[in-house]
Design goal:
Length: 381
Amino acid sequence: MSVTTVTTVAASARISVEPSANLTPLVDTSRFPDGSPGEVRAAHRLYEHLIGMWAPGVIEAAQDLGAFAALTEGPATAAGLAETLGTDLRATRVLLDGLSAYDIVERTRGTDGQAVYTLPTVLHGVFAPDGIFSLAGKIGHDRNVAWHAWRHLAGNVRDGARSTEGEQRLNQISEEDYTSLVRGINFWAPPIVRSLAEELRGQGWTSGAGRKLLDVGCGTGIYSHLLLGEFPELEAAGLDAERIIPIADRQAADLGVAGRFHGRTGDFWNDDWGTGSDLALFVNIFHLQTPESARDLMLKASKSVSDDGVIAIADHIVDEDGGEGTTQNRFFRLFAASMLATGGGDAFSVQDYDQWLSDAGLRRVALLDTPMHRVLLARHA
């Protein structure tokens, strides 16, 4: 792929999409008779939340069985897919019908009366393990970590998910699970990068020769890679664990920016980041912290950027003044529950960030809304 492809990927964030599958209504509220008790209506609404586990259940089972990979080859009947996968015919039909109920596959009637199931082209890469915006890693994380963790949320609420010494904990998963998950959340990047790039340009930020980006905890490097497409003279360094950097380097080559992306293996807590970066980027790093470690991270960030440099933080940032019921705030508060379930971290508020910024001699200069994140920009005070 070329730099043009990188720019095209970022631009795809502007394309409107249909509501996500988990928003497919399963209760027909128009069917309630006049005068139905409020408790009955409320029970129906809450039941729809309680059966939310059905969606990942059928999606992840289909992924485990290889159903999506098979449907990428073309439409199939339940009988045809069962033969390909070596699965039970009736059970395969039930699974496919479940996927169609969530608008994951399209169900049509063939000329012989049998149902035919089609995986929309737009979803082929979403389930392919090597797709740039694949959810395969997220599914693996669910299987290895999340399903078990959510069952123990009540216990973490009782004890605050604290260590045996009573201290708040960082949210940490094994390197193996991190490696799986990191490729499963690339899809977050394009709208974030598009908004960030437009705001940087609006503030007069340019990326002339010699401009340096430091991507702390870069993961696959997708944010750096897309920003390199936005700013053709920018150079980027991505810092992450030893087993992650090769993933970022390979993706940089795939996206045609390997010459300007330099992966660095290291521990971002204990290793020196250097100084003089023009842009320091932190994506989904702060929500894994405790308030104390977040403050320490901000202090280190302040030292890493040049006098006129910018710190950009993309995370699940609650804006208490931005409207209590906004879509972003609602999602972030649920995301905080997922952090609690898996042992630590939080969705911190704008006020929290402002305090950490002030302690580090920084000030907030912008706060941007994106579909599942907010992007905070800061400079030296």
